[in-house]
Amino acid sequence: MSPRTAAVAPEPASAAYLGALVAEARRARLANAPAWRALLHFRTQRLSRQPASLIDEPSFFLSSDGDRDPAAELEATLSAFFAAEPADAVHPQCRYPARYHWLREQLGFDPERLPELRCPALVRWRENFRASRLTLVFPEAYLNNPASAFGHTLLRIDAGDVAEDLLAYGVNFAAHTDGEGGVGYAVKGIFGRYPGYFSVAPYYDLVKRYGDWENRDIWEYELDFEPHEIDQILRHLYELDGVRFDYFFFDENCSYELLDLLEVGRPGTGLLSRDPVWLIPVDSVRRVTRQAGWVRRVRYRPSSATRLRHRASELPGAQQQLALALARGDLAPDASELTALPDPQRGAVLTLAYDALRYRMMRRDETADATRGRALALLAARSRAAPPRDAPEVPVPVVRPEQGHATRRAALETGVWNREPYLEFRLRPAFHQLMDPQGGYTRGAQIQFLDVAVRVLPRRHRVRLQEIRVLDIVSQSPRDRVLRPLSWRLATGLGTRLIPDGEGDLEAASVWRNEAGVGLSYARGSWSGYAFADGLLEFGPELAGSVAVGPGASLGGYCGDERDFWRGHLFAGLTRFVAGETGLVMRGGLEQRLRFGHRMSVSLSTQWERRFHEDRVEGALRWNLYF
User: Any idea which of 12-16, 309-313, 521-525 has the lowest mean pLDDT?
Assistant: First the structure.
């Protein structure tokens, strides 16, 4: 955003007129109006139940109590509008254009007693946009970046006289972390120790980052906002330049603050009326799309990886291999294998080769300097060949992100465990498991957060905390001839395992379990398979040496019907514990899930496990509710 400049101020209006405006504002209770509270980002605090602003920048407020008292801030704002021209600062009329515009509408400022100032910097800033439309943008989940593991949301400002939306501007809200990672990054993000700021950048830069570098498919929701609503949002965005918010990963995040920004244009709509304990980006998209008349149309923008994979699927396997050899430089564009192809096919192979080479550069597998000559040779050869027929458009997914299952899940389960019947209640606040209904979610991606299970053992008249899965991430990125990513998984949390009780039987013990794995995944149609090399580290006072460490391996496959009514998962694995609690554990099983609408599913699972030279078979029936 451009820095603000001071404007030329008129002679101050009389104190009597200011008093009349303050009296009218009190009579009309403007300080309690949804529009004014939206301009100050006021919310009722969960613990104190007192109103307070989400803005953590003291200089944003004109009253010393402005972050807690909207009436005091309103009256201080009115008083500031009458101020004389500051010598080296911006006049409040230009510093707070959204406030000035709304208060002028509500109170009908007399231009003789309170003249409107010229604000050249504001005018120039707004002219950069030539705004006519707003679009809510949702890049899907990106598991390799914890801050974007649940997806992301941003706002696009579209110009009416520019047909290409890549030339528009994107409004982003993000934490400033200074590149910090690891445990410190997670702790600071959870407890709001990072500053968050709004920023504006060319949209093509954001598409390059999300769609090209991070390979995230992007969904764009064009909003049906009126011009005066868009203008007020832009005025307020100008006010927020350099204004700090404390950034929290789970609630006051990119999605929360963007919904708050939309409330400025259309106050009182209740996008955040049920103040969430956490707000996942896809849930914020749901809140917007459920507003009647808010969304004009939805556009799907596939990532560079999705487009590349689709283009490759149009060619036979031998021609795919030829294109990849050209991209790597193993073959020259005038190689006999290529020149022997008919003209249109040769053009298609060269196009795929160039796209694959460009993808390798974007992924930094090769530098631009190392590939420049190869890229120019491919382009020259492609220009001499007959142009290939246009590749068909990438199919739009049948289910959009906001149409997938809700991210919270409650489950009621019954089954047999350790030769005893049990009843279990499970609650997961977020987000998605690979056996959940797949529509609207990134294929092969699983994130479960704070999945808690409480189990009742009727025979023993006992209730036990069976599991707290703090975090469970799986990235099964399928490999093919063109794209060859690694798959991985990571999980940590409190779990229950069986250990010898000293009397020839096994008893349950609580342990803290950390799991990690890396491997390969493949997919074809509705089928996918995986194989992982795993590692397991457990801590618990009831374990020998209070620890159990072991390498392992796992493999399995998922399959389902086209409508995703049924989905199955066949799996097997083993772990050799080599330190602390030692021994070999082998397991295998089958999970099946039936979907009933968007909110319910039923799961049936059975598993065989051999532990401490004993074989055990377990089974469970679970009812899942998504809400």
Answer: 12-16
481 by Cβ neighbours in 10 Å (0-12 / 13-18 / 19+) ranks as middle
Domain with 362, as residue range(s), is: 318-384
Dump pLDDT digits (tens) for 534-557.
Answer: 999 999 999 989 999 999 999 999
Task: Please check whether residues 81 and 143 belong to one and the same domain.
Answer: no
Q: Could you tell me which residues come within 8 angstroms of residue 312 by beta carbon, excluding any fewer than 6 positions away?
A: 320, 323, 352, 356, 480, 481, 482
* Cβ 571 vs Cβ 542: under 8 Å: no
Say yes or no: 71 and 137 in one domain.
no
DSSP state, residue 564: S
Query: Nearest 10 degrees: CA dihedral of 393, 353, 363, 174?
Result: -20
- Overall size of the chain counted in residues: 627
Q: Give the domain-ending residue among 126, 160, 182.
A: 126
Distances (CA, A) of 254 to 46, 165, 185, 340: 20, 22, 17, 53
Same domain for 280 and 329 = no
User: Under a CB-based contact definition with an 8 Å cutoff, are residues 121 and 3 in contact?
Assistant: yes
Residues 268 and 328 reside in one and the same domain: no
Q: Give pLDDT tens digits for 407-422.
A: 999 999 999 998 899 9
Residue 198 and residue 373: Cα distance in Å, rounded?
A: 40
- Asked if the structure places residue 42 within a domain, the reply is yes
Q: CA quadruple 300, 303, 306, 309: dihedral positive or negative? A: positive
SS (H, E, C) 150-199: CCCCEEEEEECCCCCHHHCEEEEEEECCCCCCHHHHHHHHHCCCEEEEEE
425 shares a domain with 365:
no
| Angstrom distance (rounded) from CA 509 to CA 506 | 9
